[in-house]
Amino acid sequence: MDSTFMTATAHTNIALIKYWGKKNAFLNLPTTSSLSLTLDRFYTTTSVSPSETSTDTFVLNEQVCDATRVHTFLKILRTQLGDFPPLHVSSDNHVPTSAGLASSASAFAALTGEVVAYLGLDLPKETLSRLARRGSGSASRSFFGHFAVWHEGVDDDSSFAESLHAPDMPIALIVAEVSGQSKKVGSSEGMMRAMTSPNYDDWVKQSANQFDDMTAAVANADIEKIGAIAENNALAMHALNLTATRQPFTYFTDETQLILSLIKDMRRQGILAYATLDAGPNVKIVTTKAQAPEIVAALHDYLPQLKLDVAVSGPGITYD
């Protein structure tokens, strides 16, 4: 064991090209490749130490929590890295949990990085991304700062994330937190239902084309095109939920719909503003650093109580 690294901090990411469906649930292999922006505003810091009991234990934000999901993931790491004794995992999560802000991305990336460091192993980030993918697919992208891609792959080795080399750009993301409550339909369940939509195969094909278009837009630092592609990809993803043949559903609330309408109004006024949404009611708005304050002010005019955060491009995993 190596105590050199005491904590690992990983930031969450927002998928601009979404992951919404698994072709192999056991390995967490997605049906599509995805592309994301890491955010500075939301992160998880995790430390591990020997457990004082005979099993893994978990404390989240200073509260003892059910360690089932953590223990299940640590069992996977033991099969991949070699057996190690029970661990006590302590995390501080600075992301609203289960509200569509990918809290599991930063959580499992930080946990993976911290365990690997604790064991004294020196593994490349691509390998870490493969390991973290087994706990949360989106966690694979949180090892990398700025923009990252997660390749869907065909097996465990070929499904990994890596940094997407991109120029600096003044991109900003406004998070409108419609609800901080847990989702009624969890992400895994939502994906399974969405895959029953008659439109699902077409969405997968469309997403592959959008992935290529987004990669080009990022390379060109074209924030308006990045936003337009992200909005189309996200809204098409959420449309799958409504057209599922098994228990159709939606994450949208009336407030979600109002914010989406206000974003369209802003664009008609010449403001660069595009929406993207993960599994939840919260709306993320792609814009520029310069225009973000204007958008925040406009939203507060209509929804004074709406919680808004402005995030910019964030770093990859760090250790202290």
Strand content: 15-25%
- In the CATH hierarchy, the architecture of the largest domain is 2-Layer Sandwich
Termini separation comes to 16 Å
Query: Rough shape?
Result: globular
What number of domains? 2
CATH third-tier fold name of the largest domain? Ribosomal Protein S5, domain 2
SSE order in H/E notation? EEEEEEHEHHEEEHHHHEEHEE
| CATH domain class of the largest domain | Alpha Beta
Query: What integer is the average pLDDT?
Result: 94
Sequence stretches where pLDDT stays below 50 over 5 or more residues: none
CA radius of gyration is 19 Å
- Individual helix count: 8
Total E-strand runs: 14
| Approximate helicity band | 25-40%
Structural class: alpha+beta
Largest sheet, in brief, is: 8 strands, mixed
Architecture overview:
This protein has 320 residues and is an alpha+beta fold. The chain has 2 domains: 8-167, Ribosomal Protein S5, domain 2, CATH 3.30.230.10; 171-312, Alpha-Beta Plaits, CATH 3.30.70. 35% of the residues lie in helices and 24% in strands. It has helices at 68-81, 103-118, 125-133, 187-194, 200-219, 223-242, 254-268, 292-302; strands at 8-17, 22-24, 29-30, 34-50, 57-60, 63-64, 87-93, 147-150, 161-163, 171-177, 274-276, 283-288, 307-312, 318-319. Strands 1, 4, 5, 6, 7, 8, 9 and 14 form an 8-stranded mixed beta sheet that branches. It has a 4-stranded antiparallel beta sheet with strand order 11-12-10-13. A two-stranded antiparallel sheet has the order 2-3. Helix 2 packs across helix 3, helix 4 (187-194) crosses helix 6 and helix 5 (200-219) packs antiparallel against helix 6 (223-242).
